[in-house]
Design a protein that fits this description.
Helices cover 52% and strands 8% of the residues. It is an alpha/beta fold. It has two domains: 213 residues, Glucose-6-phosphate isomerase like protein, domain 1 (Rossmann fold); 63 residues, Helicase, Ruva Protein, domain 3, CATH 1.10.8. The chain has a five-stranded parallel beta sheet, sandwiched between helices. β3, α5 and β4 form a beta-alpha-beta unit. α4 packs across α5 and α8 crosses α9. It is globular. The mean pLDDT is 92.
Length: 296
């Protein structure tokens, strides 16, 4: 395994060597300039990200689930992305899950040595009944975290789809996964602080993996959040606006349709196709919840 001081994420950045001597404005400009590298690094990986999304969609469409595993910042970002799927798209809570070395306590307080236990990566997946039908995204900025490698090895042994997300080319994570996503963001502004450029790149990639996968699975129509659940005033208003937009009725009529249908997609199918609630729900079920297919 490559030594830490040889990793790209641990190298010193010559552009920030005098960071502590800069004015506040110059300090911020330096950080901002460094962040430009992140977009370029992620853009280079778009073909691999697309390949990963196709693999995720294929598994989720056939009863599988998506898991993220990581430690420290990488783990927290995975848990964050997973936890935002249910409120945004009304996904079942088990569909996208994030696991972090050290457990949930590590979300708020660093559990430094937890990442060094490769066997714990496997045990955490076993505790969630991870199977060959599922997808595992192993996240490690350095590409060498034992907890993540242990999880990837276990997932591979089951025949699950595996994706390695790291910021170091040819890393252990990249080599052990079927699909490698490697936005090489280079040396950090503060040496070794991978919560910065590497963390930003990781967040961007995770946004793409979950969002694009759920778009492909029919959780979005056009750019509208048609799976939104009207659980508060703001979301009820959004749901009514979506129905009004896609059925060309007034906001008041859309709100009434929502009450009658119980969901945005059912309301739209009822109004567009002139169906009862039961008929609309049957049509959506046959289309695996994909509104565009149901309307066609």
């Amino acid at each position: 395994m490559e030594k830490l001081d040889q990793l790209l994420t641990e190298a010193r950045n010559p552009a920030t060597a005098n960071l502590d001597q800069l004015s506040t404005l110059d300090l911020l400009q330096t950080m901002h300039d460094a962040d430009r590298d992140v977009l370029t690094a992620v853009e280079r990986e778009l073909p691999h990200i697309a390949q990963a999304i196709d693999a995720i969609v294929a598994r989720l469409d056939n009863g599988g689930r998506l898991f993220y595993v990581g430690a420290g910042t990488s783990g927290r970002l995975g848990v964050l992305d997973a936890s935002e799927c249910p409120p945004t798209y009304n996904t079942p809570p088990e569909l996208v899950q994030g696991l972090i070395a050290g457990g949930d306590v590590a979300l708020r307080r660093s559990v430094e040595r937890a990442e060094d236990d490769a066997s714990q990566g496997q045990r955490d997946l076993e505790a969630h009944a991870f199977s060959g039908k599922d997808v595992l995204v192993g996240i490690a900025a350095s590409g060498r975290t034992p907890y993540v490698l242990g999880g990837l090895d276990y997932a591979c042994s089951l025949g699950a789809a595996t994706i390695g997300l790291s910021c170091v080319p040819n890393s252990q994570v990249a080599q052990r996964a079927e699909i490698a996503i490697t936005p090489a963001t280079g040396p950090e502004v503060v040496t070794g602080s991978t919560r910065m450029k590497a963390g930003t790149a990781t967040k961007l990639v995770l946004n793409m993996l979950s969002t694009a996968s759920l778009v492909r699975l029919g959780y979005v129509y056009g750019n509208l959040m048609v799976n939104v659940q009207p659980t508060n005033v703001k979301l009820r208003d959004r749901a009514a606006r979506i129905i009004a937009t896609l059925t060309d009725v007034s906001h008041e009529k859309a709100a009434a349709l929502l009450d009658e249908a119980g969901s945005v997609k059912t309301a739209i199918v009822m109004q567009r196709l002139g169906l009862s609630r039961a008929e609309a729900e049957t049509k959506l079920q046959a289309a695996k919840g994909r509104l565009r297919i149901a309307l066609a």
